[in-house]
Amino acid sequence: MPIRVAIVGCGSIARRHIHGYSLVEDAEIVAMCDVVEEKAQAYAEEYGGRAYNSVVAMLEDEAPDIVDVCTREQDRDVPVIQSVERGFTTLAEKPIYAAGGQFSVAAEDVPVARRMVEAARDGGGELFIAFNYRFGDYAQELKRMIDAGELGEIYYVNASTRLACWSHVIDLLRWFCGDIEAFAAAMSGPEDRRTRAGSLRFADGFVGTLLGEGIRPAFHDMLRIEICGAAGTAVLRDIAGGLEWFPHDARQHRVLEQAHDNPREGFGTTFEREVAALCDHVRAGTTVPLATAEDGLRELEVDAGFAVAAERGEWVDLRAEWA
Ligand SMILES: NC(=O)c1ccc[n+]([C@@H]2O[C@H](COP(=O)([O-])OP(=O)(O)OC[C@H]3O[C@@H](n4cnc5c(N)ncnc54)[C@H](O)[C@@H]3O)[C@@H](O)[C@H]2O)c1
């Protein structure tokens, strides 16, 4: 039996998802849905499936195994809720929801995201969030090193990223180091892409810093995550840029790097691996390392907490803030 996939939102990122499914032997795209009918028709002609301009009609007609929601963050809540409340397994792009756009996540977005997570729980449709950076070679190697205890006890984290990767980096920090419990933050710069800097306290007690900016050109490294443990310091550069390991007991350091010098290469692979993992999940129930609906909500709570902390000029305890 093929895995029947429906795409919602026939825009640019949908192409990456569709390409990923095309590489999964038993996946079949059965529906293309967009509120703009011509877009759905154009995608159906190019990639196959029937065209729809209504998510509900599409779900009723096709009953897909996977509903892949590639709408923008402002337009994510309605199609996701329509899908999960009817019990459909759903993948949604990131961040889970942001009415003002992904660079301006606000406190008001949190209750909407919570409704999405509750709809999934109540309706029985599983919801995953497309934090595909988890599927990068070096992100996976760093996660393996941390889980295997190769870094030892974590002492601190130091991360910086372009805003385009902001929610991915918050997700990666949570994935690598556990929940972020509290932080102080400040913001400056242009209104539509504010530079933000925060001091973090993780649930395990260690501290970190996180800076997001939209100033530098996109052709240099997009992100840098440095994690210092008792045994050494690991530095992840970009999603395909490399991983460096600086052991504390030796002067030599180890570099894991691909043979090419283009840090963007490998980005597409993360989408392919993500949708392949989702198909594995549908077939066999495996989930690792897909980001769950709760991961999506927690990531948004951290992002929204930045705005709250910066406005108040004081430390924000995330559990108390979003209780
Ligand atoms: N995971 C990643 O690395 C990554 C990279 C780039 C973009 N993204 C995310 O992908 C999302 C989509 O970005 P994009 O550039 O593809 O957007 P886009 O505007 O190109 O496409 C969105 C499409 O959704 C359609 N749409 C809106 N509401 C709808 C609804 N209710 N039902 C059906 N269709 C609807 C629009 O008509 C449009 O065609 C963004 O939230 C962005 O953050 C993720």
What would you say this structure looks like, in words?
Helix 1 packs across helix 8, helix 5 packs antiparallel against helix 9 (293-312) and helix 6 (137-147) packs parallel to helix 7 (166-177). The chain has 10 helices and 16 strands. With 323 residues, it is of the alpha/beta class. It has 2 domains: 3-132 and 270-292, Rossmann fold; 136-261 and 302-312, 2-Layer Sandwich (Dihydrodipicolinate Reductase, domain 2), CATH 3.30.360.10. Strands 14-13-12-11-7-10-9-8-16 form a 9-stranded mixed sheet. The mean pLDDT is 94. The protein is 37% helix and 26% strand. It has helices spanning 12-22, 37-47, 55-62, 77-84, 109-123, 137-147, 166-177, 267-284, 293-312, 318-321; strands at 3-8, 27-33, 50-52, 66-69, 90-92, 127-129, 154-162, 180-188, 195-202, 207-213, 223-229, 232-237, 243-247, 254-256, 291-292, 316-317. Nicotinamide-adenine-dinucleotide (NAD) binds at residues 8-14, 33-36, 39, 55, 70-73, 75, 78-79, 93-94, 102, 130, 132.
Keywords summarizing the entry:
globular, Rossmann fold, alpha/beta, 7-stranded mixed β-sheet, 37% helix, 9-stranded mixed β-sheet, 323 residues, Dihydrodipicolinate Reductase, domain 2, binds nicotinamide-adenine-dinucleotide, single chain
